Every structure is written in structure tokens, then in C-alpha cells.
Amino acid sequence: AIIPDKIVKNVLKSSVHDMIETNKQKNHIGSAMAGSIGGFNAHAANIVTAVFLATGQDPAQNVESSNCITILEYADDGKSLYISVTMPSIEVGTVGGGTHLPAQAACLDILDVRGASKGPHSQPGDNARKLAQVIGAAVLAGELSLIAALAANHLVRSHMQHNRKPTESAPTSMDVQVSMLRKNESTPLLSAHSTSK
């Protein structure tokens, strides 16, 4: 996909340069330093897992299916952002397994891929290929969004604003000890100079 600079600035609240640099540092260098195998992406596995559960896929196939490399480059002489995801091993099906469950079948119907491929020119596996393409598109959108949030330093703020409820912090062991001491102020405390008998 090619995203014009204007969209990167106004919608993604970032810059083409910052997004390319973030992708390089996090997804390529960071993943290599971590020893990642097939994981040169921001969070492909999150998207793959969500779609797998929603469409009745085998969640254990997430491991192979989440292999993804995310590429961001300059396009249009530096005026736009090019983004792609390469996912060589998305393992999906549109028949069998959990695809017959009511909610999962409904999701497959929405995507128009439920069941075996039909039509005069259809080939076996056409619906599965279409589902794999939908997953690839969803992963690309997720990568674009997360990389933009990371590049603009918006990720934590977004989580706090949209995903977290305010909570009181749990008392630490030191808080408990201080509270106990305050309740027992009349009890003499041992000092550093105390001696035992």
C-alpha cells in the first residue's frame, strides 16, 4: 500500500521518516537482536489470532501463520509511505474444524468465504486464499497503526485513555509494614543499638 504523506501526518499523526525509522529499529534490528525467527513485525500474531478465533481456525496454527516481515519504505520520491507485509505461511480453511460454529460461520459469511469455493470458474481453495488475503490486509492495517503510534509516542497514552481503567495501586510489602507499625506505635521498636539477651 502507498500512503500519501498528508494521510501519514493528518490521520496517523506521524511522519514518513519517523515511521520508516521506527520500523527499522523495532521490527528489523530489534527482532534480529532478539533472535526472532519469522517475527520481523510489530504484532502480526495479535491480528492473526483474533481473526483465527473469529473464523473458526485452529489457533495452534498461529505460530506458522504469524510469520511476517513488515517493510516500510519511501515512495513517490519521499512524499509517500510504502508499506507491505509478507506472510508466506498463512494456514487457513473455510470448511471443517470450527468453521461450522454459529458465530464463526457468521464471520465467514460476512467475508463471503464460508464453505467450499463455488461458481463456474472457482478452484479448490479459492475461499481459503481469499481468507488468507483478508488476514494479510488486516495485519497490514494493524502494523500501520501500531508503527504510527510507536513513532509518535502515542502508544502508552492511547492505552491509558482507551484501554485501561483507573485503579488504585496495590499496597507494597513496605506499605503494609509501615501501616502495622503505625497501629502499634506504643510498642517499642528495636533500635540499631538494641542488644539481645
TrEMBL record:
Positions of transmembrane segments: 131-156
Annotated GO biological process: coenzyme A metabolic process; isoprenoid biosynthetic process; sterol biosynthetic process
Entries under PROSITE patterns matching the protein: HMG_COA_REDUCTASE_2, HMG_COA_REDUCTASE_3, HMG_COA_REDUCTASE_4
Organism, as annotated: Chromulina nebulosa
Pfam family, one: HMG-CoA_red
GO molecular function annotation: hydroxymethylglutaryl-CoA reductase (NADPH) activity
GO cellular component terms listed in the entry, alphabetical order: endoplasmic reticulum membrane; peroxisomal membrane
Subcellular location: Membrane
Protein's name in the database: hydroxymethylglutaryl-CoA reductase (NADPH)
Similarity comment: Belongs to the HMG-CoA reductase family.
Database matches in InterPro entries: HMG_CoA_Rdtase, HMG_CoA_Rdtase_cat_sf, HMG_CoA_Rdtase_CS, HMG_CoA_Rdtase_sub-bd_dom_sf
Origin: domain of life: Eukaryota
EC numbers: 1.1.1.34
Keywords: Membrane, NADP, Oxidoreductase, Transmembrane, Transmembrane helix
PANTHER family associated with the record: 3-HYDROXY-3-METHYLGLUTARYL-COENZYME A REDUCTASE
